[in-house]
Amino acid sequence: MKRLLFALPLAVLLPAALAAQPQAGTETVQISYVEETLPNGLRVVYHVDRSTPVAAVDIWYNVGSKHEQPGRTGFAHLFEHMMFKGSRNVGDGQHFGLLQAAGARTGEDINGTTSWDRTNYFEQVPSNQLELALWLEADRMGTLLETLTPEKLENQREVVKNERRQGVDNQPYGTWTEKMLAHLFPEGHPYHHPVIGSMEDLSAATLDDVATFFRTYYAPNNAVLVIAGDIDVDNAKTLVRRHFGDIARGPAPPPLRSMALPPRMGEGRREVVQDPNAQAPAIFVGFRAPPARDPQANAVSLLTTVLGARSGGLYEALVRRQQIATGVGSFNFGLVDGADAMFIIANGKPGSSPDSLEAALMAELDNLAAHVTQAALDRARAQARFGFINGLQNTGGFGGRADVLAMGATYFNDPGWVNRQLDENDRVTLADLQRLVRERMSADNRVVLVYVPAPQPSTPGDR
Amino acid sequence: MMRPTTALLALLAAGAAARPAAAQPEQPPAPAPLRPYTVPPVEEFRLPNGVRVVVVRDAKLPIVAGRIMVDAGAALEPAEQSGLAVLTGDLLDAGLPDLTGSQIVEEMERLGAEFGTSASYSYAFATLTATKSAFPRAFALAARTVMEPTFPPAEFQRVQGQNVAQAVQIRSSVEGLADEAFSRAVFEPGAPYSRPPYGNPASLQRLTRDDVVAWHRTRYSPSNTTVLLVGDVTAAEARQMTTGTIGRWSAPAVQVPVVRNPAKPVTGTRVILIDRPGSVQSGVTVGQAGIGFADPAYFRWLGLSQVLGGGFNARLNMNLRERHGWTYGAFSNLQALRGAGEFTLSSSVRTNVTDSAVAEMVREYRRIVEEPVPPEELQAAVANLVGSFPSSVQTVQGLMQRMQSVLLYGLPVDYYASYRERIAALTPQDIAAVAREKLTPDALTIVVAGDLAQIEAPIRALNLGTVEVWDPDGNRVR
Question: What is the pTM for the complete model shown?
Answer without folding.
Answer: 0.92
